[in-house]
């Protein structure tokens, strides 16, 4: 063959190689996934939270007890690096060589789950931080292996880490914290400043308590109390759905007995209709602070604002159930599902009042845009790619066959070339039944990021998604943004 023919053949082979590489690249790009909406999901969302990968057979444990808030207790402690257990969420454990009876005896008392925010912690590092009191709720069986699942229930402010001299067990001594919601004591002053007393004639009907006995001359009816607005709703006192103002007046019982026969009866007086926005504008002119200041502490406003912000992230979060009456569990749902680092979760868990906790979460939501590798800060994905594939939310703790626990966030897609895969897909011990997993590493620094999950059947949706370790992610504004109030 001539030299020119060799060159032509070589050029043809080179072009063919380029086409092959381009085809492979196109295939890889297609396999990073695509945005997923609520209608694209038919996966059974109850499966991940049940941790069926630990075994199909299970037994439920009745642990309805709880620690009295305000008491100091000493509990067995458990430390898992990278894990901050949130009240209301589960922590699976993989423990070998334990029988069911031994597990029940080991976890018959609650356990303090210490915050996994420290690389090489010492006892003094935990003082002042928040542990979570957890109870054994389920034991799952796979052959001869028994695996416990713990449920976080209460917060515990750590006072001391103690070592038992008798059996060398380590205990956590701490104060059981109450779950403070919005109440009159905390938001009363704000509400009182926001509503001039002269406007209370527009308010809903107050409650009046008559004397316990009409024959008791020493007691008099309770004085009328100015009806301040409901906690968390600074302008809730102006409720236009009420058309009358009821004022108690003494009415004779008809027996001519004078005051001894008087009783309380409501007299309907006409009242003016009112509009919330007009009165809010009026309050803006008559109170020492503008209305937007009070609105920052208004619970319905905070929850509505958070729901509006998160609706721009994904449609797969089912947030319709969250309302002001569920403010505390909603704040914990946010701590569990937002892409927070362990340190940020621990700091937010320290906040006792739910309004302050929600304000801090809202501040984080507004600052979060892109998700990056925590090691090299290379862009991995966007917060708009977060998807919810379990009833608990988009983030849940899972344990692998070696006993390592991962807090994992599910994403619909990642940036092209941001990660690469290692190994072949396998459905063995899959945290999402019906999906095979493949190990994923950061494309820039080679650190372990998580896993890619692909459906093993054609009718399962989504067809592909990613599970990224929470401790492997940071949001891009982390250096410039503090979790503030």
UniProtKB/TrEMBL annotation:
Keyword Protein biosynthesis: no
PROSITE patterns: CULT (PS51788)
One GO-annotated biological process of the protein: protein ubiquitination
Residue ranges constituting the CULT domain according to the UniProt record: 368-477
Pfam families: Yippee-Mis18
Listed GO MF terms: metal ion binding
Pathway info: Protein modification; protein ubiquitination
Any one annotated GO CC term: nucleus
UniProt superkingdom: Eukaryota
Main subcellular location of this protein, as a coarse class: nucleus
UniProt KW 4Fe-4S keyword: no
Residue runs in coiled coils: none
InterPro entries per record: CULT, Lon_prtase_N, Yippee/Mis18/Cereblon
Gene3D superfamilies for the chain: 1.20.58.1480, Peptide methionine sulfoxide reductase (2.170.150.20)
Keywords: Metal-binding, Nucleus, Ubl conjugation pathway, Zinc
UniProt-annotated location(s): Nucleus
Sequence similarity: Belongs to the CRBN family.
Protein known as: Protein cereblon
Species, as recorded: Taenia asiatica
